[in-house]
Specification:
single chain; alpha+beta; Aminopeptidase; Alpha-Beta Plaits; 2 domains; 4-stranded antiparallel β-sheet; elongated
């Protein structure tokens, strides 16, 4: 394929460690790489914004993230050293989401050389893996106005038009503190035992509505803490629930259901990450389907920076597979990368050909 090699670019990206909070060196590399290929690129906070195409016309936002999670155990090789095995490149972040970064950058280079009827703004952002922070959340309104957004995440180039939200709850159960040696003779509950009963009742609970693309609202216990000393019956135990929601106004209903089922005191720790949904008839989705007719329109249970563009038609799509993310040995293939470059390049051309509203 003509233009920069996305496989080689990905190798260079993976070779620069960038767990959340340590993206500075990678951002500097991306900025220099973009400028060396004739792109209009600038740092915006800790992020890098690249522009190509006609200013003043319709604008399409491309976004992917520079940060990675910390490496999990059992990597088959040094996670910060990219390994090439035939057409497969593995290393921390190769799949999530440096493959998307490489594909989008190479696509924007191609679009800068053969301008289309609008402007593509590529925001390569930080802090995605830790909830937004100084990344897209902080700069999205500076990138307006854009007609639609494409969030680069590994989806096998299927079109994710809906994404679950995240509601984090804390449930507290109560007991009566007393010496463990006398607990069998003195009245009162054990807060940890009460929590165990509550957790058993919550197992498998779907405390909210379902969605055709996203499926049911789900609820899972993720942490628990209780007791102060080994010989004291605990009077307090708290556990957290990870609730994946499918409607933006689900909080009140979910809290009520969890309180009723658990019997504990329920507190909302976070409900800022709302679900995302774009009508499949939207211009960006239809343009993507014309470019890639074999793509499926799907929903996603995992979060992404799509939460910050939910006020505009948004599609989450990219090379790689979501199931590889955050795993030991994550990888992307050359074929996947090259298909991603072609898709992102053709998507902008197709959308602008149809007009900013897809008319």
């Amino acid at each position: 394929m003509s233009g920069p090699d996305p496989f080689e670019l990905l190798r260079q990206l993976v070779a620069i460690p960038s767990p959340s909070g340590t993206e500075a060196r990678l951002a500097a590399f991306v900025l220099a790489w973009a400028r060396s290929h004739g792109l209009d690129a600038e740092p915006v906070g800790r992020n890098v914004v690249v522009r190509a195409g006609r200013r003043g016309g319709p604008r399409l936002l491309y976004n992917s993230h520079l940060d990675t999670v910390a490496p999990v155990a059992d990597w088959p090789h040094d996670p910060f050293t990219p390994r090439v095995d035939g057409d497969r490149l593995s290393g921390l972040g190769a799949n999530d989401a440096k493959g998307c970064v490489a594909a989008m950058l190479c696509a924007v280079v191609a679009l800068s050389r053969r301008p289309v009827g609008g402007e593509v703004v590529l925001a390569l952002t930080v802090d995605e893996e830790v909830g937004g922070g100084e990344g897209l959340q902080a700069i999205v309104h500076d990138l307006e106005p854009f007609a639609a957004a494409v969030i680069g995440e590994p989806t096998g180039l299927d079109l994710c038009c809906a994404q679950k939200g995240l509601l984090i709850l804390e449930v507290e159960t109560s007991g009566v503190a007393r010496h463990a040696a006398h607990a069998h003779r003195l009245p009162g509950a054990n807060a940890v035992v009460e929590a165990a009963h509550a957790i058993a009742r919550l197992e498998g609970l779907t405390p909210g509505p379902s969605d055709p693309l996203l499926g049911p609202t789900t609820c899972h216990v993720t942490t628990i803490s209780g007791g102060s000393r080994r010989n004291v019956i605990p009077d307090r135990c708290v556990f957290t629930l990870d609730v994946r929601t499918v409607t933006a106004d689900a909080t009140e209903e979910v809290v009520a259901v969890v309180h009723r089922v658990s019997g504990g005191e329920v507190r909302v720790l976070s409900d800022r990450l709302k679900p995302v949904s774009t009508d499949p008839s939207a211009a960006i989705v239809q343009a993507a389907l014309r470019v890639r007719p074999e793509a499926k329109v799907v929903g996603s249970a995992t979060l992404s920076d799509a939460v910050w563009t939910r006020h505009r038609p948004t599609v989450k799509v990219g090379p790689g597979q979501s199931e590889r993310s955050h795993t030991a040995g994550e990888y992307v293939t050359r074929e996947e990368l090259e298909a991603g470059v072609a898709f992102f390049r053709r998507l902008a051309a197709e959308l602008f050909k149809a007009g900013p509203g897809g008319e």
